[in-house]
Amino acid sequence: QQQVKQSPQSLIVQKGGISIINCAYENTAFDYFPWYQQFPGKGPALLIAIRPDVSEKKEGRFTISFNKSAKQFSLHIMDSQPGDSATYFCAAGWGNQFYFGTGTSLTVIP
Amino acid sequence: EAQVTQNPRYLITVTGKKLTVTCSQNMNHEYMSWYRQDPGLGLRQIYYSMNVEVTDKGDVPEGYKVSRKEKRNFPLILESPSPNQTSLYFCASSLWGGESSPLHFGNGTRLTVT
């Protein structure tokens, strides 16, 4: 049973465009929602994270939107760049236990 | 440099031959965990440890063992590897506390069992 559902599986965006990746969860006990970015041959690295007491968090070109009532959260990448091409994982957890989405492969075309 | 180090990076073995993948972190983190990454399945937790001598099963523990004798090390042991354990493995660590803290991942070990 997938605790966190992520879509789309893959995404192709033109340089300068907006990339949007969506995730949904069921367990209302989750209190931390990080996004990880993974480049080929590397481990996932924390990109940005949000807690459920806020609806949005922005760091540079990356924004998390969080809808607690709908149990959904999304990652928006503004002005997407070829260097953003990577696999993105959403996750949800409490304490140190995390459940990951299945990943989204993002390709930004120059 | 703060990091999680896994060895080896690549490993090819045969069915039934015991192997160990090492993991070490230099951040004095209490929490360590092993994940496997498979296409279309994302990252799934195998085992985790909240401190020395404290370990517990994750979502997919079958066929794996772990130990935590020192705070910095958390090896993953496959006593009798099988082809369905062919995967990309990641070790991760984080601070242990009342509030969730982010995971720091190693660069992975790609295991092939023939």
How would you sum up this structure, described in words?
The complex is a heterodimer of chains A (110) and B (114). Chain A is mostly beta strands and 110 residues long. Chain A is built from no helices and eleven strands. Chain A has strands at 4-7, 10-14, 19-25, 33-38, 45-50, 56-59, 62-67, 72-77, 86-94, 97-100, 104-109. In chain A, strands 2, 4, 5, 9, 10 and 11 form a six-stranded mixed sheet that branches. Chain A has a five-stranded antiparallel sheet with strand order 1-3-8-7-6, with no helix packed on it. Chain B is an all-beta fold. In chain B, strands 2, 4, 5, 6, 9, 10 and 11 form a seven-stranded mixed sheet that branches. A four-stranded antiparallel sheet of chain B has the order 1-3-8-7, with no helix packed on it. In chain B, a hairpin with a 3-residue loop joins strand 4 and strand 5 (42-51). The N and C termini of chain B lie far apart (36 Å). Chains A and B meet through strand 5, strand 9 and strand 10 of A and strand 4, strand 5, strand 9 and strand 10 of B.
